[in-house]
Design goal:
The chain is an alpha/beta fold. It is 44% helix and 17% strand. The protein is globular, with a radius of gyration of 18 Å. The N and C termini lie far apart (44 Å). The relative contact order is 0.20.
Length: 144
């Protein structure tokens, strides 16, 4: 019996890394104002994508500023250890990995602006579509 359990455990352990990301979709919900938290959310999203997941980023509250064409320095300044910025990493994922980035539907009305202030490729989120992505069986939600 011990041999059977050991064999099952080894088989499962060997299979998990290969299938953990297959078909997975990561929804990163970012609300934090702190640049380090914002950057770490981007780093973890990038790592998930590099492991085979698809991803979308939902920027809400103070983190919505990352999606602005004229973003504050907190979103664009490089941080240690690799001098990366939250916005820079997000833009790279959008360009190189087909990651979508959206601001929460209430973000733009909250700052008194329209979509013209957003980076190219960043769009206002549709609440029904965002909820659908969050609830999908293959989704993993990360919230910061």
């Amino acid at each position: 019996m011990k041999k059977i359990l050991t064999a099952c455990a080894l088989t499962l352990a060997a299979a998990l890394p290969a299938t953990a990301q297959e078909g997975r979709h990561v929804v990163t919900i970012l609300t934090a104002a702190e640049p380090q938290t914002q950057l770490m959310a981007m780093v973890l999203t990038l790592n998930a994508v590099q492991q085979g997941a698809t991803a979308q980023i939902l920027l809400c509250g103070p983190a919505g500023d990352i999606g602005l064409a004229d973003a504050p320095e907190t979103a664009t300044a490089g941080q240690p250890p690799r001098d990366a910025s939250p916005q820079g990493l997000m833009r790279m994922m959008m360009a190189d990995h087909n990651v979508t980035a959206e601001v929460c539907a209430i973000y733009l009305p909250g700052i008194g602006a329209d979509a013209s202030v957003l980076l190219d490729g960043v769009t206002p989120a549709a609440p029904d579509a965002a909820a659908g992505a969050i609830l999908a069986d293959n989704s993993v939600v990360m919230s910061f």
